[in-house]
Write a structure and sequence with these properties.
Helix content: 10-25%
Order of helices and strands: HEEEEHH
Largest sheet: 4 strands, antiparallel
Radius of gyration: 16 Å
Structural class: alpha+beta
Strand content: 25-35%
Number of strands: 4
Number of helices: 3
Amino acid sequence: MTPKRADELVPGGSLYWVIRGELTCRQRLRAVEPFVDGEGIGRCRLVLDPKVVLVEPRPYRAFQGWRYLEAKDAPRDLAAAAPGAAKMPETLRRELRGLGLL
């Protein structure tokens, strides 16, 4: 399905990934390309920047479909939230978060 607000998303929006119940990273959205598949169903291709940016992890339950995050609600990039943390192994980051140290 094509997102209803695609025109708002492309100039600077990101797709945020929920992994293991947390928002963990994002990729910049370059384009949304609607098309109709061989069965006549409307679909879309998401063209994403290949660079994956780690974000400040936040619990978020899994879902199906589109969710829109306003800029004020989006998690900060991890590099801004905790400089140097992106270089740590994920297991260490999770442990430090669990201890309230990150």
